[in-house]
Specification:
By secondary structure, the protein is an alpha/beta fold. It has 17 helices and eleven strands. The strands form two sheets. Strands 3, 4, 5, 6, 7, 8, 9, 10 and 11 form a nine-stranded mixed β-sheet that branches. A two-stranded antiparallel ribbon has the order 1-2. Strand 3, helix 1 and strand 4 form a beta-alpha-beta unit. Helix 7 packs parallel to helix 9, helix 8 packs antiparallel against helix 9 and helix 9 packs parallel to helix 16. The chain is globular and about 70 Å long. The chain starts with 13 loop residues before the first strand and ends with a helix.
């Protein structure tokens, strides 16, 4: 999946899963274009057409063999994927194409951190999918994110990122903490405050050179993401300064920084990767796609030493997810809509989950064997199909705002400053709010 973390986005790597013996290794697959030319509207005298699908990172369709399968079902249609590895490069280009009304693919991916802005400012330029897909097939909050005020649905949900907790069993044992996944879930059942208390216990007997968690900013994101109201209210007003979830997340992050319970390691950067390789991180918040990151960088040395359990508290969080949309300007809109409908159906989402480890947003996939009984050998055969499906059911319907990503990333930067530079919480918050207010107007 995506290897960059963007506003509202997530890092993405591939983790293959099966219903019996899962391959557990994460494939270091970065996005690369499979189609350098722009032949998205190509057709010939025999009625054969080429549909161009533009996305970012790794959506998993190629790895799951879905394009070849679709061609067999529709011999007159060839699907070509044009992938940009970095979503922060992809999105500005998409906006330019939308504003110019040209250069768009037949199908385009949209990251969850961008969907609100696109819905509010560009919805009229996309086909309404509400008559083509059954919105109730998705987890309730997913398609609402892509629904405009007039009821049009501009995107069909691909994956989601239900949050769990990944932890090192062996390090927990050495620190005298419970290591069984059910026992760990019970220890943090009261919420993120319990998680911090567990961290304090860990620190008392922590193996030399290890940290209880990778970063307070990651924990902050999980806390905020488990709330319905985050950075904006239902009227579209930025309320991050008064948001109860933001206040809770910030205070908990400041506590973690003060008690030095984390390594202060911004996720996906070189020091974070090195800490995983060297076995220095005991736990981290873990959206569905994070397992592949961990297994990639931790390597064979720590296979079977990691495990996955429920996230702290009773309300789950979501980190990540995307949509497929169809621009109205395409010459093959009908065919593109049918492709989107097929790619986001339960069987195809299950195939992508099996191939690259990203979790489906279509509820119908949860009852398929390849999802329902899925386990990860790298993570001590953790029943990820069950864990993620249960988490997905308790994720609240969050209010999204157009600048969620800017706000979140700015606050995360200041949390990192508290951890790494010893910046006092009041100073860090002041710096964060000043930067955000300038950015969002």
């Amino acid at each position: 999946m995506r290897i960059t973390r963007t506003g509202g986005g997530r890092g993405r790597r591939a983790a293959a899963v099966t219903t019996t013996v899962l391959t557990a290794s994460a494939l270091l697959l970065t996005g690369c274009s499979s189609d350098d030319g722009d032949d998205s509207n190509a057709s010939d005298s025999n009625g054969n057409i080429t549909l161009k699908l533009a996305d970012f990172g790794q959506f998993g369709y190629k790895e799951a063999g879905l394009f070849e399968q679709y061609h067999k079902l529709h011999p007159n249609i060839t699907v070509k994927e044009d992938t940009t590895s970095d979503e922060q490069v992809y999105y500005p280009k998409l906006l330019q194409q939308l504003n110019a009304g040209s250069g768009l693919a037949d199908v385009t991916g949209i990251e969850v951190g961008r969907i609100k802005e696109v819905v509010d400012t560009q919805a009229a330029k996309f086909a309404d999918l509400s008559k083509s897909i059954n919105v109730s097939d998705w987890v309730s909050w997913k398609e609402k994110q892509a629904t405009a005020k007039d009821g049009t649905v501009i995107g069909a949900g691909t994956d989601i990122g239900p949050m769990s907790l990944c932890y090192r069993k062996d390090l927990f044992q050495k620190a005298g903490l419970p290591s069984d996944r059910d026992a760990v879930a019970k220890a943090v059942a009261g919420g993120w405050e319990d998680y911090i208390q567990l961290g304090e216990q860990y620190k008392q007997k922590a193996p030399s050179g290890t940290f209880f968690m990778d970063s307070a900013s990651a924990m902050y994101n999980a806390v905020v993401s488990s709330s319905a109201e985050q950075y904006y209210d239902a009227d579209g007003k930025a309320v991050y300064k008064d948001s109860a979830a933001v206040k809770q997340g910030w205070n908990l992050a400041a506590e973690v920084a003060d008690k030095k319970l984390s390594g202060g390691l911004p996720q996906f950067q070189d020091p974070w990767q090195a800490a995983l390789r060297n076995g220095k991180i005991a736990s981290m918040v873990c959206p569905a796609w994070m397992a592949a990151q961990i297994s990639t960088y931790s390597g064979d040395t720590y296979k079977g030493k990691w495990d996955i359990t429920r996230a702290p508290g009773t309300t789950a969080a979501n980190w990540g997810g995307s949509f497929l949309a169809v621009p109205k300007s395409g010459k093959h809109v009908k065919e593109a809509v049918e492709l989107v409908k097929w790619l986001t159906a339960p069987e195809q989402q299950a195939a992508v989950f099996k191939a690259v480890g990203v979790f489906p947003s279509n509820k119908g996939a949860y009852e398929l064997a390849s999802v329902k009984t899925a386990k990860l050998p790298y993570f001590s055969d953790a029943p990820i199909g069950q864990i993620y499906a249960e988490e997905a059911k308790s994720i609240p319907e969050a209010v999204l705002g157009p600048k969620d990503g800017v706000i979140k990333d700015t606050i995360s930067t200041q949390i990192n400053n508290m951890e790494q530079r010893g910046t006092k919480p009041d100073k860090a918050w002041k710096d964060a709010t000043e930067t955000i207010d300038k950015a969002i107007g």
